[in-house]
Write a structure and sequence with these properties.
Oligomer: single chain
Number of strands: 13
Number of helices: 10
Helix content: 25-40%
Shape: globular
Bound molecules: nicotinamide-adenine-dinucleotide, uridine-5'-diphosphate
Largest sheet: 7 strands, parallel
Low-confidence stretches: none
Radius of gyration: 19 Å
Strand order of the largest sheet: 3-2-1-4-5-6-11
CATH superfamily of one domain: NAD(P)-binding Rossmann-like Domain
Mean pLDDT: 96
Length: about 325
């Protein structure tokens, strides 16, 4: 697996920074590209001294010229708060970013992996979600800049494969959590942990009976690397996530228990187009990648709580 030159776009983010770390550990050279919109130098600071690591501040909506063997395309804000801040830029990042990275892959003959999302299923009417399900997405809603942007990126990847047989890989990532999540991105795991650690109210949107399936970061990145290592016949899309399904209320209760917090649960209005349920069918990932997640939610949450606890001690303002 080692000795390749690998480009990770979005490498300064939550998942990208951990992926860079794992690729370096495997002996590769890594070029990390990020415009630091939601990512941070703090996430990659510990890699800066490594001679096989290089950071480029660059926006993927503009062309990039580097020589690489593999490309992991992760650049894109992932949390609703951040991707809704500038919806036009979100669409551009998904679509122009994909066009630029696919063009680069074609020019240098690189394998390219797209980090797509369970959001391509929208508010799903098929449960659990299988890759064959086409989804239920509002094209003009609050989430559409991200959902439709990511759907179009999948279309572009598929079109390049159809037309040029470029070795593409598409993974559809379900909710993932872990250390280095952005503390202010409003995602449910980081919100609940920070609220619990500070004994603030835990904000449940709606009644809390909507479900999500939470995958620990390390399991997820392992699956991405396995997907990249597959032969050219495997293009995906392949779901990756943890099929354990929890209501948001169950998550809140677990976080309170694990932190020993005095926080109370309060209810807030449910945002528009918030999917009611989400759970991956991972049969394809099991068969094609020999992979399934091994970190139970309790264990992953305990590690994530320790990370945020430390962050609060170092920087109470974070
Ligand atoms: P993140 O926000 O921490 O990371 C995204 C990174 O992309 C950030 O470092 C950001 O600065 C960078 N970026 C954004 N726009 C860019 C641009 N135009 N040019 C260059 N860099 C840009 O989010 P994450 O959770 O690490 O997500 C990584 C990828 O995984 C994203 O593509 C996301 O859509 C996908 N994904 C994540 C989840 C999840 O639960 N974490 C779920 C589904 C899909
Ligand atoms: N959510 C919540 N309280 C929060 C943040 C989120 O109840 O403080 C809910 C949100 O409405 C959604 C679920 O938790 O139903 C997951 O939200 P997140 O933004 O983490 O991810 P996504 O909706 O994109 O899966």
């Amino acid at each position: 697996m080692g000795n390749k030159r690998i480009l990770v776009t979005g490498g300064g983010g939550f998942l990208g920074s951990y992926l860079c770390e794992k690729l370096l550990e495997a002996g590769n050279e890594v070029i990390c590209v990020d415009n630091l919109f939601t990512g941070s130098k703090r996430n990659i600071f510990h890699l800066m001294g490594n001679p096989r690591f290089e950071f480029l501040r660059h926006d993927v909506t503009f062309p990039l010229y580097v020589e690489v063997d593999e490309i992991y395309n992760l650049a894109c804000p992932a949390s609703p708060i951040h991707y809704q801040k500038n919806p036009v830029q979100t669409v551009k990042t998904c679509v122009h970013g994909a066009i630029n990275m696919l063009g680069l892959a074609k020019r240098v003959g690189a394998k390219i992996l797209q980090s797509s999302t369970s959001e391509v299923y929208g508010d799903p009417s098929v449960h659990p979600q299988v890759e064959e399900y086409w989804g239920n997405v509002n094209p003009v809603g609050l989430r559409s800049c991200y959902d439709e942007g990511k759907r179009c990126a999948e279309t572009l990847f598929h079109a390049y494969w159809l037309q040029t047989k470029l070795p593409i890989k598409i993974v559809r990532i379900f909710n993932t959590y872990g250390p280095r999540m952005h503390p202010n991105d409003g995602r449910v795991v980081s919100n609940f942990i920070l609220q619990a650690l500070q004994n603030q109210d835990i904000t449940i949107y709606g009644e809390g009976n909507q479900t999500r399936s939470f995958c620990y970061r390390d399991d997820l990145v392992d699956a991405m690397m396995r997907m990249m290592a597959t032969g050219s016949d495997v293009t995906g899309p392949v779901n990756i996530g943890n099929p354990g399904e929890f209501t948001i209320l169950q998550l809140a209760e677990m976080v309170i228990e694990l932190t020993g917090s005095k926080s109370k649960i309060v209810k807030r209005p449910l945002p528009a187009d918030d999917p009611r349920q989400r759970k991956p069918d991972i049969s394809k990932a099991k068969a094609l990648l020999g992979w399934e997640p091994s970190t139970p939610l309790r264990e992953g949450l305990t590690k994530t709580i320790a990370y945020f606890d430390q962050l609060l001690k170092e920087d109470p303002e974070y």
